[in-house]
Structures are given as structure tokens and as C-alpha cells.
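Researcher: Next sequence.
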Amino acid sequence: MSGTFFFKKVAIIGVGLIGGSLAIVLRNKALAGSFVGIGRGKANLEAALRLGIIDSFTTDIEEGVRDADLVIVATPVKKISETIRKAAPALKKGCIVTDVGSVKKAVIDEVEPMMPEGVHFVAGHPIAGTEHSGAEAAFAELFIDRKCIITPTDRTDRAALEAVRRIWAAAGSDVAVMDAVVHDRILAAVSHLPHIIAYSLVNTVADIEDSGIDALGFSAGGFKDFTRIASSSPEMWADICAMNKASLIEMIEAFQARLERLKRLVASGDYEAIRGDFERAKSVRDSLLKTEKSQRQG
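Model: Next structure:
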């Protein structure tokens, strides 16, 4: 990478919503010369080519990353280390490899030891997304005013870290740098647990449907809004459960304790305590929305 912050060749492994959107940003900002897409699904790669997200594609990882200055790994999180292991023999010195997975500690522990000499790994996670996937879901504005967390270690090259930080800043993200373990606990609470709850709620209502009661036919906007994220990729979220197990179990148990408390209050008829719990939640939620509105206006 030159001092002008320009990548001659960018390889994107997984040209979906996140990888494709970041490629669009880099192209629009004139931060890269050419883009090669790498993946298993030829139809998706052809769509990315047709949409101008990439300039060429291949299903061969080594072929795709050869001579790349920047490699963006946007695969399901459980496949990140395996993907980088396959790419490693073809990575040139000076290449920066970064990921977008929502679990960081397990990925770092697996990937850092396999980095060839002179190749730099910087773990990252843009907190952005929709329930849609694939190249056709990609758009340049996805990361604007969204958090992006970078989780360096003592082994992370400082220049590579700064390059990745600048990439996400160029995408419009609010970039934060933190320890990987802290990241995983935070994301287990605010992202991974909500997805598990959404999937579980839909399945709970589906179980009622199986008993012969038409519940879904009477679901309104609240149910659909709350469960929107249950339309997310099951493969991706199953992988996240596998990779962030300890933190996720901690958060599930905390949520179970909350549900058990509410169950006891309902059973005992302590509606003042129930209202107090609801008022606390409303206050926290309203404060969050107020802060977000203030940041957008600022």
C-alpha cells in the first residue's frame, strides 16, 4: 500500500451484503484499482460482476488473493480461519488481511499463528447489516453512522491497523478500538442474544400453530418488527453461536433470569413491580433513541 492510501488490488472473499458494500465504498472513494470476488456461488459472483461491484471473480481462493494488497474476508464467521488458511500460501508480503466477523477472540486465536511473515492481519467487525444477503443486497450507505470495532493485539502491525481504521472511516463508520474479549461480551448482549430471542419467539409461535391454532394469521406489526432479524441467515447465526459460546451462554442465562423474575411477578400478581421493570426498560430504550437522534443531528 502506498502513502496515498490506495490499494492496487482488493480481493473480497464472500461478496455478499458486507463484503459487497465495502467494495462499493472503496470503488466510489477511488481507494482501490481493481476488485476480484472470490466465493463458492457462481450465480452470486456473476451478479456482483454485473452490478459493477467486482471486476473479475474466481472460485479458487489462492488464485483470487495472489498479488492482492488488501484481502477482505466476509465469509460466515466459522469459516474465516479455514478460508485464510487456504489463502495464506498465495499472500504477498505487505498484504493486509481483515475480516468482518462478529466474533473476534476465537478468530484471532486461530488466524494470527497462520499469518505468513510480512502479511498483516487486522480483525474487524462492522456493526451493520440488514436481513438480506448476497451481492444484490449490497449498497454504499450501509456503514454510514454505524459502529465498526477493530480488535488489535500486541502482534498487530500499527500501519496495517491504521489502514483498516481509515477504510472504515471512509465508509462513514464510527470506528472504535477495543480488546477482543470485551467485544465478544458486548456483541453477545446487544446482537447475538437478540437474534436468538427472535428465532426462539418465531419458533414458539410456530409450535402453537402446530397445535392447530392460527396464531400467525393474527400477528400484527409489533410481532413482525420484533422478529425481523429472524429472517437473517441461519448458517451465519449458527456459526456465531458456535464461535462465541461462552459469552452467549452468559447472556442467555442473564436473560433467563430476567424472564424467570417476570414470571414470578406475573404469578404473584405484583403488577407494581412489573410496571417498574417495564418503566426501566422504556427509559433505557428512549434514552438510546434520543442519543442516536442527537448524533445524527450533530
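Model: The two ends are 33 Å apart (CA to CA). The chain has two domains: 7-178, 182-297.
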